[in-house]
Amino acid sequence: MIVSVPPDWANNGPGTRIVRQFWAILATDCYRLCMLKKYQKQGPSPWDRKLVIVLGALFAITLLLFAVWAVTLLAEASAVDSCLDKGGSYDYERQRCDFETTHPVP
What we know:
The chain is mainly α. 64% of the residues lie in helices and 6% in strands.
């Protein structure tokens, strides 16, 4: 089925003028610039910046506390290991190496 368009609608139909005006408005520089400005990416708000700083500081403090805990744990393990390598028994209550008495492991 072939549909033909009446000759008066092809060039000068009832809606042709409105469509041409619509495309003319879209083609203007002002319209394009206004639309681009409207949808430009906005920078982060001050609240977002403060939130990132606070969360970063909390993460850094947590990481620092974990590092301190790990170092103290490794220092104690190193002291126990060096005591056992020398042939002694490590006293966990007094935190020292004892070569005379055998101490239980907690």
